[in-house]
Write a structure and sequence with these properties.
alpha+beta; Butyryl-CoA Dehydrogenase, subunit A, domain 3; 376 residues; 9 strands; 3-stranded mixed β-sheet; 10 helices; single chain
């Protein structure tokens, strides 16, 4: 197995980073809405949304692994959440969509014509998608979702709901009658998190992904979205580490740059080691999702649980290394901490994912023990 990225993958990651750098409002201290439309159009022009789309629908037919570095760049540039959600939706349609669904949606996604918001979480229901109460009864959808990123700007909603006592993913046009969207007043206003209420919304026939095994589509949506979140967290953490290192090289105290002090060196080194470890577990999760490996869910949860803690730690350390100035509004460091905190809780927090890893490991150990007894 080749554990390195090729030049094409690296080049595209750099291209995404350069495009986002043209929009300084994304990372500025100001929390007013950044220019999402212009950012979206710029990313569409470089072909980001076509990468995972099959060639017969106007795409390039790449995998999640090919996008790993680009997703890190999205995290480093604080790209709109709809970008990541649309990439997750593309993967889901490729793996679980019918030919009709793929032809209808993937051809538009490839050109940037569709923005997707993923609606999973509900109030007081925890993070497990199997516990959702939003219901699809026949052709009518009812329920309320919370923390739906960029829902107000989306054209397509991927809604996790219950149908026939099983979870499923329903494709719903965001402008359908009966949908009410309310913007949350949350820690990171630039994430565009919303509450979305479905009041007897009519759903077209053929809008459920993988109607025979709908829970498989739900599981993949959560695993891939979780993995993408881990990549975004690592991108933001790496950006903050670069900011910290640049600052300690020029901040002079007692006649020399503070980066020369051993205590500062240790803190920067610890952050660098943590980020490299986080990248390793995130890259494996990307591979496991791309190859649909048996441990895909566990790899995604391990990555999300670890990368969330790393990102939060690096953001806090970077702010502290900047001294009192780091806590002010002027430098904009708070933007990365805000995004890290909300992303850390997207698709499950560390406690949820650690429990998920534990349950998967115990099940594997139990199955191995049963096999040994049967073979004895």
């Amino acid at each position: 197995m080749n554990f390195g990225f090729d030049e094409q993958q690296k080049s595209f990651g750099d291209t995404v980073a350069n495009v986002l750098a043209d929009f300084p409002a994304l990372t500025s201290p100001d929390l007013s809405a950044p220019p999402h439309d212009a950012v979206w159009q710029a990313l569409a022009e470089i072909g980001l949304f076509a990468l995972m789309v099959p060639s017969q629908f106007g795409g390039v037919d790449m995998s999640l692994v090919d996008l790993a570095l680009a997703i890190e760049a999205l995290g480093a540039g604080l790209a709109p959440p709809a970008v990541a959600a649309t990439l997750a939706a593309t993967d889901l349609l490729v793996h679980h969509g019918t030919e009709a669904q793929q032809r209808e949606y993937l051809t538009q996604i490839a050109t940037g014509g569709i923005r997707v918001a993923v609606a999973v979480l509900e109030a007081d229901q925890g993070y497990d998608p199997h516990d959702v109460q939003t219901a699809l009864d026949g052709s009518r959808l009812n329920g309320t979702k919370i923390l739906v990123g960029d829902a107000a700007e989306a054209t397509l909603l991927l809604v996790v709901a219950r149908a026939f006592d099983r979870p499923c993913v329903v494709l719903v046009n965001a402008d359908a009658p009966g949908i009410a969207i309310r913007i949350h007043d949350d820690l990171d206003p630039t994430s565009g998190y919303c509450a979305v209420t479905f009041d007897d919304v009519a759903v077209r026939s053929g809008s459920v992904l993988n109607e025979f095994y709908p829970e498989h589509a739900v599981e993949r949506l959560v695993d891939v979205s979780t993995t993408i979140s881990a990549g975004l967290l690592m991108g933001g953490a790496a950006r903050m580490l670069d900011t910290a290192v640049s600052y300690v090289k020029v901040r002079v105290q007692f006649g020399q740059a503070i980066g020369a002090f051993q205590a500062i060196k240790h803190r920067c080194a610890d952050m660098a080691v943590a980020i490299e470890a986080g990248r390793s577990v995130a890259y494996y999760a990307f591979w496991a999702a791309a190859e649909n490996a048996p441990d895909r869910a566990r790899a995604a949860s391990m990555a999300k649980a670890y990368c969330g803690g790393v990102s939060r730690h690096v953001c806090n350390e970077t702010i502290q290394l900047h001294g009192g100035m780091g806590f002010t509004w002027d430098l904009g460091l708070h933007r990365f901490l805000r995004r890290a905190k909300v992303t850390e809780h997207s698709y499950g927090d560390a406690a949820f994912h650690n429990e998920r890893v534990l349950n998967a490991t115990l099940a594997e150990v139990s199955a191995a023990a049963d096999e040994r007894r049967n073979n004895a």
